[in-house]
Design goal:
Elements (H helix, E strand, L loop, with lengths): L6 E2 L8 H5 L13 H47 L4 H5 L1 H9 L2 H6 L4 H20 L4 E2 L3 H18 L4 H4 L8 H10 L4 H7 L2 H4 L35 H28 L14 E4 L18 E6 L4 E5 L5 E5 L3 E3 H6 L52 H18 L25 H10 L4 H7 L4 H5 L3 H7 L4 H43 L1
Helix pairs in contact: 2-6, 6-7, 6-9, 12-18, 15-16, 18-19
C-alpha cells in the first residue's frame, strides 16, 4: 500500500483569507509583524514537505521493484517445471543462452544490499521529517503517515530475513521528537517491529555516545532540494539542524540541573568550598613571606587553597599555617597529573616543608640556609600590598625576589616546559560561534563526547560555565576543560590590555607629534 502524498495544512479562513491563500503551504497563525521571518518559515516548511514526499516516492518505487522481482521469479519457476520432455532436454544449452538475455530473467535479480540500506535510511529520515511537520500538514497527518511507513518497512525486514540489516543503519540518527511520535502513535503490531530494530531506531541521537556522519539523501529521480535561500544563505539540512537544537537543549538541561544541585546543597551558606582534593595545589617555586600576612613556601610543597580570588590566594600548609601566596607559583595537583603528557614536571625541592618554629603559630618563617648563597630578606618592614591596581608592582617585586633565589638554587628550580607540538592557534573568544568552539575543543585534544556535548555552545556560553557545571556535562574531562578555559580567559585579558595600551601609546604619540609640528612653526 503506497503512502498518500503529503498535503500541506491550510490556514482556517478568517478575517484574512487573501493572506492565507497567498502561500504554497499553510502553517499555524504567525505574528504578522515580521513578514521576512514568516516567509522564511514557510519556505523551509515547503522544502521539508518536498523532502518527505520524495522519500515516499523512492520507497514506492523500491517496493514496486520487489513485487516485480517476486512475480518474475514465480513465472520462471513455473516454466522450469514444464521442462521435463526429451525434446526440451536436448535443447537445454540453447535455451539457457536465450534466458540470459530474457527481460524476465533480468527482473528476477533482487536489489543489492546497499539499495536496501538506502531505502531504510530514507524511511528513518522521513520519520524525523514527519515529526517536524506534524503541526504543518494534514489529510493525512503525520500520525497517520507513520502507519504507511511501517507497511513497507515490515515487508523489507521480512525480505532481508530479519531485522539484522535494518538494525545496522545508523545514519541518519533519529531525533527525540521522532522517537516520541513513534512511542505515542504506533499500534500493538507495529511496536514490536520497531523495538526489534535496536538503538539506531529507538534511541535519539542526543543520547548516543558516537558521532554520526551527516546524512544527505540522493533521490532516484535526480531531484535535489533547494540549497540557497532567497537571501543567498545556505540552507542547513532540517534533521541536522534538529539534532543540534536537541543537543543544545540537553546540554542546557544538564547545566541547569547542576546549578540547581549546587544551589540546594549550599543554600544559606555564604561561602562554599570545592572538595578537599580539588583545593590541593603544588608550589612551583620557593616564596619567602615579607610580612605576617604572607606565607613562606618551598618548591614542591603541597598547599590547600582556601580562597582563590584575585591574584593573591589564601592558603594553608600541612602545619596549619595560613597566609597569602602569589597565584602564579601554584598549580593544581589533579590538573598537573591529567596534563602530564604536555608538561615536563619540575623536580621536587630537596628541602623539607617549613615547620612552625617552637610550636608557635607564625605566618612568616624564613628558610634555614647559611653561607654566601643564603637569602637575606630586606630588613625594612613591608605591609601587605593592595590587590588590584598595584598588583603588577607586587609581581615585579616577587619576580626579582625569585630571581635572587634562583641564583643560589638554579639546580632545584626548573620552569614549565610546554610541548610545542600540542600548541594550537584555534580561535576562541566571547564572540565565537559553535563551530569555532568545536574546533578549539578538538585542537585541545578533548574526546568526541566532550566536543559533541560542548560544541553546541557559543564562546560566551562556554566561558560562563563553572567547574561544577562542566563536570556535570562532561564527567571525565570537565575539570580539564575548566583549566583550559581559565587559560584562554587569561590570554584574552592580556590581549585586551595590550590593545588598550597600544591605543594609549598611539594617542600619546599623536600628541607628541602635534607638539613637535607646532614647535617648528
Amino acid at each position: 500500500m503506497a503512502a498518500p502524498p503529503v498535503i500541506p495544512r491550510r490556514q482556517s479562513k478568517s478575517t484574512n483569507d487573501t493572506a492565507a491563500n497567498s502561500h504554497p503551504i499553510g502553517v499555524n497563525a504567525l505574528n504578522g509583524g515580521d513578514r521576512v521571518k514568516t516567509d522564511t518559515h514557510l519556505m523551509h516548511a515547503q522544502r521539508e514537505v518536498e523532502l518527505v514526499n520524495h522519500c515516499f516516492a523512492d520507497v514506492e518505487r523500491f517496493m514496486a521493484r520487489l513485487q516485480e522481482t517476486a512475480e518474475a521469479k514465480n513465472i520462471l519457476e513455473q516454466q522450469s517445471i514444464k521442462k521435463n520432455s526429451k525434446k526440451n532436454e536436448k535443447k537445454k544449452t540453447k535455451k539457457k543462452k536465450e534466458q540470459d538475455d530474457d527481460p524476465l530473467t533480468q527482473r528476477v535479480t533482487p536489489p543489492s544490499e546497499q539499495e536496501f540500506v538506502d531505502i531504510f535510511q530514507k524511511m528513518k529520515y522521513s520519520l524525523s521529517l514527519l515529526d517536524r511537520l506534524k503541526m504543518k500538514i494534514s489529510e493525512p497527518t503525520s500520525e497517520e503517515l507513520l502507519h504507511h511507513v511501517f507497511i513497507p518497512l515490515h515487508l523489507m525486514v521480512k525480505t532481508t530475513g530479519g531485522p539484522e540489516l535494518a538494525a545496522t543503519v545508523s545514519s541518519p540518527a533519529m531525533t527525540s521528537g521522532a522517537i516520541a511520535l513513534l512511542q505515542q502513535n504506533l499500534n500493538e503490531q507495529e511496536k514490536p517491529l520497531w523495538k526489534s530494530l535496536g538503538p539506531n531506531w529507538t534511541v535519539p541521537y542526543s543520547q548516543l555516545s558516537e558521532i554520526m556522519p551527516q546524512y544527505k539523501p540522493v533521490f532516484l529521480d535526480g531531484w535535489q532540494p533547494m540549497a540557497i535561500d532567497t537571501h543567498g544563505q545556505p540552507i542547513e539540512d532540517p534533521i541536522e539542524s534538529q539534532h543540534k537544537h536537541e543537543a543544545l537543549m540537553q546540554t542546557q538541561q544538564v547545566i541547569d540541573q547542576a546549578r540547581l544541585t549546587v544551589y540546594q546543597e549550599h543554600d544559606g551558606m555564604e561561602d562554599s568550598l570545592p572538595p578537599h582534593e580539588e583545593r590541593l595545589y603544588r608550589c612551583s617555586y620557593d616564596f619567602v613571606a615579607r610580612n605576617s600576612s604572607e606565607l613562606s613556601v618551598l618548591h614542591g610543597e603541597t598547599l590547600e587553597v582556601l580562597e582563590s580570588s584575585k591574584r593573591w590566594w589564601k592558603c594553608k600548609n600541612e602545619y596549619g599555617q595560613i597566609g597569602f601566596v602569589p597565584h602564579n607559583i601554584l598549580e593544581p595537583i589533579n590538573h598537573a597529573e591529567v596534563d602530564s603528557s604536555n608538561v615536563v614536571m619540575r623536580n621536587q625541592s630537596m628541602k623539607a616543608p617549613i615547620p612552625p618554629p617552637g610550636g608557635g603559630r607564625v605566618s612568616c618563617v624564613l628558610p634555614r640556609s647559611t653561607g654566601k648563597n643564603a637569602f637575606h630578606p630586606d630588613p625594612r618592614p613591608h605591609s601587605m600590598p593592595p590587590i588590584g591596581d598595584n598588583g603588577d608592582k607586587v609581581f615585579l617585586m616577587n619576580d626579582e625576589l625569585l630571581q635572587r633565589l634562583a641564583n643560589g638554587k638554579s639546580a632545584s628550580i626548573r620552569p614549565v616546559v610546554i610541548n610545542k607540538a600540542n600548541e594550537t592557534t584555534a580561535p576562541l573568544d566571547y564572540h565565537s560561534p559553535p563551530a569555532e568552539v568545536q574546533g578549539w575543543l578538538r585542537a585541545k585534544g578533548f574526546n568526541d563526547y566532550t566536543v559533541q556535548s560542548l560544541g553546541v555552545l557559543t564562546g560566551a556560553q562556554l566561558f560562563s560555565l563553572n567547574k561544577e557545571e562542566l563536570r556535570a556535562v562532561c564527567p571525565e574531562e570537565g575539570t580539564r576543560v575548566y583549566s583550559q578555559i581559565m587559560v584562554q580567559k587569561a590570554l584574552l585579558e592580556d590581549e585586551r590590555k595590550a590593545t588598550e595600551l597600544e591605543a594609549i601609546m598611539k594617542k600619546q604619540k599623536m600628541k607628541v607629534d602635534l607638539k613637535a609640528e607646532g614647535g617648528e612653526f
